[in-house]
Amino acid sequence: MSATESNESARSADRRGAAPPHVDAQQSRAVAEAAREREWQKPSFARGLYLGRFDLSLIHPHPRSDPGRVERGDAFLAGLESFLRTVDAPRIEREARIPDEVFEGLAELGAFGMKIPVEYGGLGLGQYHYNRALVLIGSVNASLGALLSSHQSVGVPEPLKLAGTDAQKRRYLPRCARGAISAFLLTEPEVGSDPARLRATAVPTEDGAAYVLDGTKLWTTNGPVAELLVVMARVPKSDGHPGGISAFVVEADDPGITVHRRNAFMGLRGIENGLTTLRGVRVPRENLIGREGQGLKIALTTLNAGRLAIPAICAGTAKWSLKIAREWSQARVQWGHPIGGHAAVAHKVAFIAATTFALEAVVDLSGVLADEDRKDIRIEAALAKMWASEMGWRIADELVQIRGGRGFETAASLAARGERAVAAEQVLRDMRINRIFEGSTEIMRLLIAREAVDAHLTAAGDLIDPKLDLAAKVRAAASASGFYARWLPQLVAGAGDLPAAYGEFGALAPHLRYVERTSRKLARETFYGMARWQGALEHRQGFLARVVDIGAELFAVSASCVRAAMIAADAPEHAKSAFQLADTFAAQSRHRTERLLDELWRNTDADDERLAERVLDGRYAWLEQGIVDPSEGTGPWITEEIPDDAMEDVHRRVIRLIDEP
């Protein structure tokens, strides 16, 4: 091969987007570690739970929204509710598409600029009212929630608010507020939660005036209808360019961008989600968000509050599910009684009601904490996303069970038979993605666990580094012993051991005492795990997952009790019912927590992992005999590079009523 041919081959590889060579586990971890926030400059209630420090003063009395934002937010919510009552939700499900007039109506309301500051043409709402809007939307159609949250939580507005230049904000935020839909392009066919394998490239031009983007992006929510994109791509390291994964604002109709298809899913039938390629897309240097190599850090910082969109949507669906469960359980009679009077159904109704109260408590508390900006909520937001998506799915599943055969039947079929068109099966399908969106439950547990054990890793330091010699480990042990000598005695006793502690919470005080005691116990158990496995603790994913889940339950109980106290102060007529809901939820949560604590040390993790290894080795392939696999021969597990002529561009514009300046 000649030098010319070799250079051309290299340029072609850049255009295709080449995977970094030999990306191993250590490199992947290094990329993730470089992107995470290392400092804790603000207090965090949830972080304290994992360290055995139950500081209720961080969330009680329940924080309040700014009065100015309340007035603007309440006015917007009133208009949004009126508009949503005109939306034909069954049509979205039937046609698998949000009608253009719904896009336009949302734009006229200002829904695409809810969180954009007023000076840039937005509504300037805080996270609390943004969450309340998504609660409303989640009760009507989850695809609408996906549209708006993808646009504002991870699309162009939030990254620019956090890291954009003044010029970028002036140029793009007003457009976004008027209805220029945005999308976030990170995931690739071979890249999910492991960004170290990112293939998309952004090669600087020789004059340094621009970057040329090449790559393939998968599951680009809003991609088929977007005007603006946030694209994550790898800048090669070179003279004057530190390189690394970087973020760019890109015009969706720039030459070289093709949306090859609109993907379809088991739920969210109205979602606009595509498969997009970038081929030689020239992006001005001024469109780089932040600095080169800061793309993942910007994305993770954006998600600190952005993840709260999913809990809000889950809360809206849960509230709707509660309403349907209550009305149906009163109306449906079997064996001489409404089915809600039978214990088997009553238990499900109680779970839905109590958990819905807790979901709303977690969403509202996290939203106001985000607005205050006086606390570090990265763990709170991650816990809210993980816990709400799991509980929201369980609520939807229980609703289908309560409805029986009618829960499995579609709303359209019910309506055709003359019955109320309750879309329980649709809700189940729509809710399922929330356990995967913006970090699957499994990935979220790992991310939260990393933060939960950060104090131990920092204290232990070189002690758990297998590469260091004995002398270095002796010095590290001396350093670690100082931390643990101060920290461990604090876990022996606390307010949870005092019968009168948290007395201002009345009947809920025992639950808060339990949270305080369990927080200290959880910290001790984590220390035992660290002492037993040391650096190998990160591989004990079953143990870490249970640690995280226990903290999530403690956070939800705390939020529920604080919310009940706030309701009692603001609306005394609802005090009794709020306390009853919080009390029942806390009791249910305690049973889950006790089971998780027991399973920290008594479980089948080792057996499960050995069996899985044997399964993957093919030792039990005989167990698969006697079936037919219709998927065989239909294509590879992961697609290769997409040909240029794979499909016509399906990108389209949906908002036409908003005039350009």
From TrEMBL:
<feature type="domain" description="Acyl-CoA oxidase/dehydrogenase middle">
    <location>
        <begin position="183"/>
        <end position="276"/>
    </location>
</feature>
<dbReference type="InterPro" id="IPR009100">
    <property type="entry name" value="AcylCoA_DH/oxidase_NM_dom_sf"/>
</dbReference>
<dbReference type="InterPro" id="IPR006091">
    <property type="entry name" value="Acyl-CoA_Oxase/DH_mid-dom"/>
</dbReference>
<dbReference type="InterPro" id="IPR009075">
    <property type="entry name" value="AcylCo_DH/oxidase_C"/>
</dbReference>
<feature type="compositionally biased region" description="Polar residues">
    <location>
        <begin position="1"/>
        <end position="10"/>
    </location>
</feature>
<feature type="region of interest" description="Disordered">
    <location>
        <begin position="1"/>
        <end position="37"/>
    </location>
</feature>
<keyword id="KW-0285">Flavoprotein</keyword>
<dbReference type="Pfam" id="PF00441">
    <property type="entry name" value="Acyl-CoA_dh_1"/>
</dbReference>
<dbReference type="InterPro" id="IPR046373">
    <property type="entry name" value="Acyl-CoA_Oxase/DH_mid-dom_sf"/>
</dbReference>
<keyword id="KW-0274">FAD</keyword>
<dbReference type="InterPro" id="IPR036250">
    <property type="entry name" value="AcylCo_DH-like_C"/>
</dbReference>
<feature type="domain" description="Acyl-CoA dehydrogenase/oxidase C-terminal">
    <location>
        <begin position="293"/>
        <end position="451"/>
    </location>
</feature>
<dbReference type="Pfam" id="PF02770">
    <property type="entry name" value="Acyl-CoA_dh_M"/>
</dbReference>
<keyword id="KW-0560">Oxidoreductase</keyword>
<dbReference type="GO" id="GO:0016491">
    <property type="term" value="F:oxidoreductase activity"/>
</dbReference>
<dbReference type="Pfam" id="PF02771">
    <property type="entry name" value="Acyl-CoA_dh_N"/>
</dbReference>
<comment type="similarity">
    <text>Belongs to the acyl-CoA dehydrogenase family.</text>
</comment>
<dbReference type="InterPro" id="IPR013786">
    <property type="entry name" value="AcylCoA_DH/ox_N"/>
</dbReference>
<dbReference type="InterPro" id="IPR037069">
    <property type="entry name" value="AcylCoA_DH/ox_N_sf"/>
</dbReference>
<protein>
    <submittedName>
        <fullName>Acyl-CoA dehydrogenase family protein</fullName>
        <ecNumber>1.-.-.-</ecNumber>
    </submittedName>
</protein>
<feature type="domain" description="Acyl-CoA dehydrogenase/oxidase N-terminal">
    <location>
        <begin position="80"/>
        <end position="179"/>
    </location>
</feature>
